[in-house]
Design goal:
Chain lengths: 431, 259
């Protein structure tokens, strides 16, 4: 069956895990913890942990929602270390997706885990195949659904009138070889509604985000229907049995597929025609052939470099915003307690005799507010401060006292956060 | 001002189909100017409010544009990637040494083509990542401007939203890119010395297209991250590129015909 190669391609060689040096860079943004899911989705309820463990056992037949856990990948890595390799070229198509996926999962801040279900689907495949080969019994049916819906939506407030509605995903339902049915894949379906459309917009407006698993299932379905020319969107949709997938999605995807399939070189070529990096040169000319190869190598190197830099840049950007958000929270907390301090200070400052001591006292309180302000990139025009003149006057004092105020043993509450602000600030300055 | 120029350059150099998919930075800047010029608490407040709403509206529609385009491309890449794998397998199975119709010449020829395809495919995906990033950068900058000029607090919450947008979450494309790299390394293993030796000579062979755009993207990235007057804790550190001279010399202003 043609489907087989498609699945086999996805197998990974555990030995190749170490080859991805780059992936090390990616995981620097978030600490690698045994439960990365908690890290990325802080708002998730604790029940996921247990259900994820259940899922990791893989033998669960229940269809109760279980949450995705990237830690399960570790199980699969070990189990798949003895991977089979029927291809003539030693597993070149076996891509060590494990590491990348894991790192990507960890690196991604998005709770929706676009990659998540895909990884899980992959691991599920491998486990499935391993079992089939080893035991050759009825394949252990892995049959559970997962709901990532609430997690990602919880973060999004409708403030900006732009919503990415709940993604829903299903774990693949793998059946044994005996079973005539097609496996339905895990699908991270994210119909993205445009802000202009209402909640009840027509399906045509929703955009779906395809994944390799989904595509694989699509290919399988198409093949079972007699190929890309004979298959109809309706038939494919039915066969795929993926929740949330509409006929419009399938239709457009089928169209793309047909184009890519029947003109593999020209589809690569058409984009290349306008963008050829190297013209076609007669292969009889050996020297030019070598030149082409070298040029391709160079091109590849440069592309790799750009990719690397983009990843780094992206991680930095994520981190920066994370810190900004953190500071903002602290700032807001401070404002509440700071208002009282400021008000007390303002009345005190009007008394010149106590100027110096009071200035020192209220400086730290205002400093952290100001620090947070500056760090959050806001201009100090907040109406929080009742007397703008006061603020301006003490700004200079604040700056001078910024360094010294960690040493001043003052009231605990405002300064605890401030001392944590300082290191945060410094660490970023060093970064 | 500098970013706007850089962005314009990028757009000009980018793949033709992509030209109108980038951020309308200039538009947004105009709106910000409009908003800040109409004082908030005077009789011009109506305009102020309207321009503000227009600003947000435009931002949202831009994000929409990015998302749609990005996901469209991503879908294409998924398909192409799979097809590439199939194609390689097929060539090996038929023309390869242990294939059904082994033929070294044909095999080599096909592999040559495939190699070129992979490299260009890889390049295109990386350029999409670049697309995503540069638009994000633009959004971040324009939001910062907005907050600065209007004293608003739009930036922080809005940027949080942007971070969760599909176009910014480039994990899948990144994975496909790495798979391509792996594919190339495995199917076309290369000697290290070869690369070093012929590198300079091969520069002149490169012409327009993906390669050129990649170089341009790298240069732009470096320029954008150079220290600016508004460098703050929110700014990215300057970009340090090893092999910078090599990359710079690869930057060609006109296509060099291959004779």
């Amino acid at each position: 069956m043609e489907a087989r190669p498609a699945f086999s391609i996805q197998r990974s060689g555990a030995k190749q895990l170490g080859n991805l040096g780059v992936s090390g860079v990616l995981s620097s943004s978030l600490p690698l913890v045994p439960t990365p899911l908690e890290e990325t989705c802080p708002k998730l309820p604790g029940s996921q942990q247990s259900s994820a463990n259940t899922a990791s056992l893989l033998m669960s037949q229940s269809s109760s929602p279980a949450l995705l856990q990237s830690t399960t990948s570790s199980h699969y890595i070990n189990e798949n270390s003895a991977s089979w390799c029927p291809e003539p070229l030693p597993g070149f198509l076996d891509f060590p997706t494990n590491t990348t996926i894991q790192n990507n999962q960890i690196e991604s801040n998005s709770c929706a885990g676009v990659m998540a279900s895909e990884e899980f689907g992959k691991r599920n495949d491998w486990q499935e195949w391993a079992d089939q080969l080893i035991t050759d019994d009825d394949a252990l049916t892995t049959n559970w659904n997962e709901l990532l819906a609430d997690t990602s939506v919880a973060d999004m407030e409708p403030k900006m009138a732009y919503q990415v509605p709940k993604p829903s995903s299903n774990i693949p339902v793998q059946h044994s070889q005996v079973h005539p049915q097609l496996p339905s894949p895990s699908a991270e379906i994210r119909p993205v509604l445009t802000p202009t459309s209402s909640a009840n917009s027509a399906p045509t407006k929703s955009r779906m985000r395809w994944t390799p698993e989904l595509h694989e299932a699509f290919v399988e379905a198409v093949n079972n229907l007699g190929g890309s020319e004979r298959a109809t969107p309706k038939g494919v949709l039915k066969l795929m049995k993926v929740e949330g997938l509409t006929i419009y999605h399938v239709k457009s995807h089928l169209q793309k597929y047909r184009t890519a399939r029947y003109r593999p070189e020209s589809s690569e070529g058409s984009s290349e025609k306008r963008l050829t990096s190297i013209d076609e040169i007669s292969s009889l000319d050996l020297k030019t052939g070598i030149e082409i190869t070298e040029a391709l190598q160079l091109q590849m190197e440069v592309q790799k470099r750009l990719h690397e830099q983009l990843e780094i840049q992206r991680n930095l950007q994520l981190r920066i915003e994370e810190q900004g958000r953190h500071l903002q929270m602290m700032f807001e907390k401070q404002c509440k307690s700071g208002i009282d301090v400021v008000k007390a200070a303002s009345s005190a400052l009007e008394n010149p005799s106590t100027l110096s001591s009071d200035a020192i006292q209220d400086a730290p309180a205002k400093t952290e507010l100001e620090t947070a302000q500056v760090d959050c990139g806001k201009t100090p025009t907040d109406t929080i401060f009742a007397s703008p003149a006061l603020e301006e006057g003490s700004q200079d004092l604040n700056r001078k006292h910024k360094v010294s105020q960690t040493e001043t043993p003052e009231n605990s509450e405002p300064y605890n956060t401030d001392s944590s602000l300082q290191p945060a600030k410094r660490s970023r300055a060093d970064a | 001002m500098k970013f706007g120029k850089r962005l314009k350059q990028q757009v000009q150099e980018t793949l033709p189909d992509w030209r109108d998919k980038y951020l309308s930075y200039k538009e947004l800047k105009k709106l910000v100017r409009l908003i800040s010029s109409a004082p908030p608490f005077s009789y011009g407040s109506v305009e102020h409010g309207m321009a503000g709403a227009e600003f947000v509206r435009l931002l949202n529609s831009e994000i929409d544009k990015f998302n749609t385009f990005f996901m469209e491309q991503e879908e294409d890449y998924i398909i192409r990637h799979e097809e590439l794998k199939q194609r390689i397998q097929k060539v090996i199975d038929t023309l390869g040494p242990s294939g059904s119709q082994p033929s070294e010449a044909a095999y080599k020829e096909e592999m040559r083509k495939i190699r070129k395809n992979i490299v260009n495919f890889h390049g295109e995906m990386v350029l999409l990542e670049n697309y995503s990033n540069i638009n994000y950068t633009g959004l971040a900058k324009i939001l910062k401007k907005y907050d600065k000029r209007t004293g608003g607090l739009l930036r922080l919450p809005f940027i949080q939203k942007v971070l969760e947008q599909p176009f910014f979450i480039t994990d899948l494309v990144s994975k496909l890119v790495k798979q391509c790299e792996y594919m190339i390394d495995t199917v076309f293993p290369v000697e290290e010395e070869e690369i070093m030796k012929e590198r300079r000579e091969s520069i002149r062979v490169a012409g327009e297209g993906i390669f050129r755009n990649t170089i341009a993207a790298l240069m732009t990235m470096q320029e954008i991250r150079r220290g600016s007057s508004t460098h703050s804790h929110f700014s990215l550190p300057p970009l340090i590129l090893p092999d910078f001279d090599l990359i710079q010399s690869s930057q060609l202003n006109s296509p060099i015909p291959i004779v």
